[in-house]
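Researcher: Let's run the pair from yesterday's discussion. Sequence first, then tokens, for each.
Model: Starting with the first of the pair.
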Amino acid sequence: MSNTPIITRFAPSPTGFLHVGGARSALFNYLYAKQNGGKILLRIEDTDKERNKPEYTEGILEAFKWLGLVFDGTVIQSANFATHKKYLDKLIADGHAFISKEKVVEEGQRAEVIRFKNPNKKIAFDDMIKGEVSFDTTELGDFVIAKSLDEPIFHLSNVVDDITMGITHVIRGEEHISNTPRQILIWEAIGEKPRPIYGHIPLLLAETREKISKRKHGEMVSVEYYRKNGYLPDALLNFLVLLGWNPGDNTELLSLDQMIKQFNISKVQKAGAIFNIEKLRWFDKQYISKLSDADFIEHAKLFLPEWLGTSGPTFKKLLPLIKEKVASFSDIASLFGSGSAEAGVNSNAASAGVMSGELRFVREVQKYSADQLLWKKNPSREVARKHLEECARILNAVKGKSAEGSPDPNTDLNTDLNAESIKSAMWPYAEVHGRGDVLWPLRMSLTGQEKSPDPFTCIYILGIDESLKRIENAIETLKD
């Protein structure tokens, strides 16, 4: 096959959304084909009439479009039914298959199935990843290849399509390795072309080292989950390519073009690869950090609360903070406490530095009691009120209304307002009178939250007028 153009394929069944393991298999096929000047074809194996749904086919196509993997052709398996039947008839005529009346449909009735006549021999093949693999096919018996003369099933349809599509390399998940000996037997019985070269990719495993599956791990096993939760497709591809393979050095960030150049299928590991959501979030954060502000905003729009526009001064102040905090765009919903992104993503948000609702104060201060304004090491209302009154005087000085109350008359308070200039005006007072004593009631007055950005950042985001209003309200609360 050395002179035969390489043609690989990815052949999903539309019985659900595209699995992340399937996306990785497709990616490995894509990389191997492209780096060898070959082609990759997409084959939708839609012959399971009971479980197939058109929306799943559409979902698979949309997932690959989102990922940026472009196939060199698409085949719908059901369209090849006549060809499948032709080869089924040929196998029967050549004595490689036979009709067996055995399957009980209803009590007292039997139906015909078509079985492949097993030659009961040993089969060996050189797997691109696992090395030499051998099977004694005797234990397979005479296996079913069609439910009837009009209903070829998976093994036969799979082989016939590989033959007619000119597939030279079958690269797929390890769970399919038990299918390989059956398919080799069918391929050899048909005898039209040399059988393809096989490669079986290791399983994707959860942290518990069990195979990830929708039944146990929910929607997080589908590519659609990451698309709708605002992950970047380049980040997901980068993460997937390193599950079971690496370029041989410490390089982690790889573009698709770099993957094509560096990927080596013979270096794919034999053991299962751990699907670590935290590592995926790390990749996503790296790719988010590379986005221009305009591109970031475009991605963020779907997850921002309705009340926060993207053209006003408040959002301009928030943008660097949001960009710094999020590891996926769905984290934005968590930041503002404005409803939820998927629970699986939110469960990882905190560990990535995203505190749920920490920016809720931007819209309105959260309700608090007078006691919540008090620093735990000095719970005095009088002290807290005195510090808030001084903070208000300093802010008025920063605003330029009055220099009275400034901690340092020589400080130029007419510079551009930002968090650092606010901090430089207020920090000396906090240093003298105790950071916790001063800054805790200040932050609580501004946000009503125990967890939020530092008070100087909060003041910058809110603006001095709104900040002063909130501080005055806190002072009144302490008088009650």
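Model: Moving on to the second of the pair.
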Amino acid sequence: MSNLERPSVKRVRDALVSAGLEDTVMEMAETARTAQDAAAAVGCALGAIVKSLCYSVDNRFVMALVAGDHSLAEDRLAMSLKLNGKVRRPQASEVKGITGFTIGGVAPIGLSHPLPLVIDGSLKRFERIYAAAGHPHCVFEISFDDLARITDGVISYTVAEPNEGVAPFRPSFKRSKTFQQGAD
């Protein structure tokens, strides 16, 4: 059986189609278990890989989607989701139970239970990004805007820090008429 036909991967494929998107799940010969593995297999920049990280905030499971070249700032996770409490990494069995996916293939969509979700805004640097698709040999391609829409995730520019040697991402914002030069 192809990995594309596994029930966990089918959930991701179905979630894409249900959201009005193309089924962009691809099976790779090489593993995508880590961000580095995925970037090498896909042939993209490390930052274009979406790491799906599960945590517990005061015993409530949450997910952070972080660029492959960034690290989660755990001390800012709860605040990003407007939650309070102790932040901890759950056990692999807890992740499987709450998401329906095994670590190394945890997808941000097709979850068995909805989770509060925060998205690292630095992923906006890329036209196309790649996330795990339910199996360590499967990923899917998506735009940042579509990922934000279908996950209903909170976008945060402070939930992750660039790894050593990676330039900080500074988004550009349009100024309102009030702050434009020459406005009445």
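Researcher: Give me one sentence on the second I can quote.
Model: The chain has one domain: 3-162.
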